Amino acid sequence: MTRQLIDQLGVFVARHRNRGILLDTNILLLFISARYQPSMIGNKRLQAYTGEDGDLLIQFVQRFGRILTTQHVLAETNNLTRQIVKGRLHESLSDEMHPLFCLNLPTSFEQCTIDGKNIDRRLFGRLGLTDSALASVVQTNQLLLTADLDLYTAVVSDGGDAINFNHMREAAGLL
Question: pTM for this one?
Answer without folding.
Answer: 0.93
